[in-house]
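User: We ran a pulldown and think these components assemble together. Before we commit to crystallization trials, I'd like a predicted model of the whole complex to look at. Sequences follow.
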Amino acid sequence: MSLQNILTNWSQYRKGHEQGGFHDYEHMWGMAVDLNKCIGCNACSVACYAENNLGIVGKDRFEKGQGMHWMRIERYWDEPNLAPGVSEEFPSRGASFLPMMCQQCNAATCEPVCPVAATYHTPDGLNAQVYNRCIGSRYCSNNCPYRLRYFNFYSYYDWSWPEPLNMQLNPDLSVRDKGVMEKCTFCVQRIRVAKDTARREDRKVADGDVYPACVQTCPTDALVFGDMLDPESSVTKLWKAHQVELGKTKQHKDNEELRGYRIFEGLNTDPCVMYLERVREVEV
Amino acid sequence: MSGNDINRRNFLKVMGWGGAGVALSGCDMPTTVTLEEGKETVVSYIMPEEYVIPGQGVYFASTCQQCSAGCGVHGRVREGRVLKLEGNTESPINTGKLCQMGQSGVQAHYNPDRIQKPMLRKGGALVEVTWEEAAAALADKTGKDSSLNGGRAAWLTGTVSGHQSVLLQAHLEALGSSRHYTHEVINNAVATQVNQDMFGEVQPTYHVTKAKVVLSFGADLVGTSMSPVHFSREHTKFRSAPRGVLIQVEPKMTLTGGNADLWIAAKPGSEGVLAMGIANELLAKHGLSGDALPGGLRDSIASYNTDKVVEITGVAKTKIVEVAKVLAERSPSLVLTGASTEAHEHGYQSVAAAMMLNVILGNIGKTITSSGEFPFPQLTAKRGDMKGLLAFAEHADKGEIDVAFFYGVNPVYTAPKFLNLEQKLDKIPFKVVLTQFYDETANRADLVLPLASALEDWGTHVPGYLPEDKIISMQQPLMEKLYKETHGLGDVLLSLLKMRKPEEYEGFADYYAFLREAFAAIPSDHKGGVGDEKFWMQALQFGVIPVNVAERSIKPTPIEADLPALKEDISYPFYLVPSAHLGLWDGRHANLPWLQEAPDQISKVVWGSWVEMHPKTAARLGVENGEFVRVESMQGSIEAPLYTHRGIHPNAVAVPLGQGHEEYGRYAKGRGVNPLKILNPVTDEKTGEPALYGTRVQVAKAPFDEKQKMVRFGGSETQVGRKLVASITADVFNRTEGA
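Assistant: Here's a predicted model for the assembly, 1023 residues in total across the polymer chains.
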């Protein structure tokens, strides 16, 4: 996009996703995260390590921010200021936990900056990373506002999977080596199996045919996953119930009290992950 | 099985079904669909090699062994390797879900630091030997022709249940010994004693989902308390509209505390007084009836007027009033306790005071019901505690133990320094350690027997906490053993039994054969009308065996709590909180790299130890985040980096359990500190259980140690004004989603 082009079409700048396009997609995988249910236990994250061959980087490299947690739980201490008079001495309303995985943005900021098209959008609405193409420029990671891309600064293989730990590696996907960017895929290998099975059985992929590892293990059902193009899927219903829509730069809600929101909505990245607000009783 | 001379009753006992009174119902008939048809992926392990479908994962049901909650798992097996564990949807414990410790079960199985061969102490050093040589040593020391006085043999184990427990008891019986000591650091020993005295059973069923308010005195429900995944499932229903209120009282924020609607930091040890104060409010201001309470207890409650309680607990008056109000207005509720209330010198009294609230609030029969009469008492969990270790150490010290077997415990790591355990162990001439890993206890063994992993072994388990639906959970191998010279616990026990009672146990080729026979031995009216083979296949396919229990009701007998005044200690002004978290647990998971790299849920520290302190306290002591502090009790000191946050009482200093291993493999060894080491010898006066939260410490700045520095996940402690985690009130939530 040249500067001239940007200036001429300023009103449409980073609003391209409003023009639609994804409606022609085969699937549009999406998620909903209920922060009223999430307890911050971290089961999702370890399930992801197990499923997706995530490397262990060790203490020193973790300190430098190299941890490979495609799915991570942020924990914030600030009070949500729900009620006046909440004690400043203690966090009386507990902590605020936030599971963060790739938001699979429809207007992903990571995609257009890749010099080799290693990151691109699939016809499933996924923000995919082609490891073979990646040359490690790290532009994508620099451009991700959610900090959800993870770079292999080193070969973590020896430390992560000394024999026989390597026998645990999931053969459905590769082990990434030094110089490659990696990220959450919504467990694309599982999606592929579900699609293949459905095709063999001459039917559509049904809601519940496929769960990413994090969703499958979540002890509190805080994570809901499914096809946003399937009007009957639980994730579609949840988005609808909370009046959050894909392909909008500004959400319209009849009822302002509905809990749905997307993180950094204002950046117009059009994420496929909706969050539902955390809830606290303030009568006590 | 040989021996027609064994009568039926004895036979049932040998097989673990002794005391059977009530029907054990089978499952529905499974629809048998072959794998080739590609529909059914849960199959029993009895299938021959053809179950291996190249490129396709096949799922087998088993039981998670990462803690004693007994969650059902489905292991994904591909080309003969287990790749991943998922929750078993059939299990009422975890209904298809797993926690991060469960997910890490594969790392315990494939751990690079597993012991692969038996080791025998020769000339002072442990050397690898063949299993035959190990067996010969065992027969020589413990067989029926040995000089062993069987009554001087002992087992020290963690929580055990199911048929492994049956064989273990049989082994003790064959020896003529009653010395089974059970030991767990994370336990509910004090609470179960109060339950026994107050409700007539150690572990009633708690219905979190039926409660409108849960008042938890330190019970880490979704974390380390009883059954993490089960109560996380309950939490979700509890928090759906109309939404329940969770009030958590504890000295240091647990994972459950992090999810509380109201988190209260009471002065450590004053939880019982707070409970009495709330009781007083309920009786005096809200007109609740105290008729069910003995007169002395009513008088005692009346003496805890709110102002006095404020003074003792340090909790604001408004909060006490509000908590009482919400409990009175929203019924039924549920009051529970956890380690931070139980593990004090007067822990029993505090728990009694807290549980008494359930009587006043009319929760008995509603949110607390009897768990019924489990028909197979031989199989139920033998719960471990700290006092089991104390008794073991004392008897070892007196020279009463000649042979000791260790399983599921690492006492050299978990024993406080004051116990002087190493010295006492030296008085046991022959120590046999059954373990997967070379831990601190194995290091002092005379014989180390390498165990098969939980994913390679057979077993049956009765979870320590059973929800409404009662089960026995099946454990079956998910793959071939990685190392030929490792054996399952059941097989080792059978070998030991054959050395004592060959006539009775020679007929069982292995533990699998024993289990098959045990399953065939369930009286047919317990099999739900299916034949032996089908019953067995169903157990393997579903992973759980539903059990019908005789119903019981609870008639509570409230206990008069006698709460002593809290003692001040000028030289050791702080309470040490040896906190546990879902992850490294009591240290047994410190060798799993996924859990080392998984941030602690509250502090977000990875790969090491830390000390938690309130920022006010830290400021007073002149120490800052990341700097090192020395935490010193009368028994010794530990040094670790400081993490300050407000989720801790200013009088408390928390050091997490789990690190500080001197052995235990490459991921655990030489990392962090073990707070158990500096515990003072204080015990709960009533039960004798060591008071883990009763140690007083002083804190001072210590020199920085690059190797043990604190590494944390994440940068920002706050949202810096961005809408990351937005919150609304329960009022709005119930209005919009309460339909």
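DSSP finds 23 helices and 28 strands in chain B. That may be worth checking against your pulldown data before setting up trials.

User: Thanks, that helps.
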